Amino acid sequence: MLARRNAGRSALASIARLGRLQPRELRGPRTLEYDLVIPGLDPAHDGLKVAHLTDLHVGMLTPDRKILRAIAAAQAAKPDLVLLTGDYVCYSPKFVGRLAELVRGISAPCYAVLGNHDYWTDGEGVRRALERNGYAVLRNGHSEITLRHAPLSIVGIDDAVTGHADSKRAFAGVRKQGSRIVLTHVPSIADRAAAEGEALILAGHTHGGHVVIPRVTARIARKLGSRYLAGFYRIDGSLLYVNCGIGSSSIPIRAGAPAEVAIFTLRAAATDK
Ligand SMILES: [Fe+2]
Q: How far is the CA of 213 from the centre of ligand 1 (A)?
């Protein structure tokens, strides 16, 4: 159902990443490109390119240059759509102004949902910072955009950690057929989203485990109720992607869960003729 296009780096690069230092981390986020067959996608949207960024965490622990490189990487992919899934700032409202500066310049239509750190910091301020740049913030609502003469529904479920999520309200009035993308900060909400029908569901929040101990991190996460840690998951007819995100909110170093910008090329399922 999906194929990763740049998965095969040289063995040497892989070995280098296993060590003490992650040179790629120091340079900035990696760009991951995927071809995805999306259930229910309108054939008119076959080939549509979507950039997904999450968990920028503008603040003391994420260098500005890392965020700027992430935005530049998304722009370089020439996406038709840019989607953001929350946690833009952390810890102090003083970072909200810097957020507005750092995310400036996305030229494709851009849609966002907020995350727990945004609400803990200054949810209204973050919303205004994004909207000042022309980006739409969906709070338990949807937007229908026409791309290539066909409608695409973008549904935004508000943050679940802070008790703002209302998936029923988010899906009210969303057309049942055609192309659908759902945004949620917290991946576990994907179960509720998938119950509303086939879609591509994008999430963040987990940082992919942030510092990953193979097998152990996933097991602990499951025990804490986080079944969806990083990457792709099939839920009923929907496809969930959990992005490892860009920044840090606790410790500045990541291991085993590098910062990423995800670029998806959407593909319609083949139909019998
Ligand atoms: Fe979060």
A: 20
CA of 183 to the centre of ligand 1 (A): 13
Instruction: Determine the distance separating the centroid of ligand 1 and the alpha carbon of 206, expressed in angstroms.
Output: 7
d(CA 204, CA 162): 15
Residue ranges of domains in the chain, CATH in brackets = 21-268 (3.60.21.10)
Q: For the ranges 5-9, 49-53, 85-89, 238-242, which has the lowest average pLDDT?
A: 5-9
How far is it, in rounded angstroms, from Cα 40 to Cα 267?
10
Q: Helix 95-102 to helix 64-76 angle, to the nearest 10 degrees?
A: 30
Give this prediction's pTM: 0.88
* Mean of pLDDT over the chain: 88
* 154 C-alpha to ligand 1 centroid (Å): 20
pLDDT, average across residues 85-114:
95
Report CA(86)–ligand 1 centroid distance (Å).
Answer: 7
How remote is the CA of residue 235 from the centroid of ligand 1, in Å? 21
Provide the strand spans (E) within 74-148.
Answer: 81-85, 110-113, 136-137, 141-147
Average of per-residue pLDDT across 160-175: 97
Is the model's pLDDT at 72 over the cut of 60?
A: yes
Distance 44 CA to ligand 1 centre (A): 34
Span of 58-62, 177-181, 187-191, 212-216 with lowest mean pLDDT: 212-216
Rounded (10°) angle between helices 116-132 and 95-102 = 50
Residue 120: phi, psi to the nearest 5? -65, -25
What distance in angstroms lies between residue 55's CA and the mean position of ligand 1's atoms?
Answer: 7
Number of Cβ atoms within 10 Å of the Cβ of 162: 17
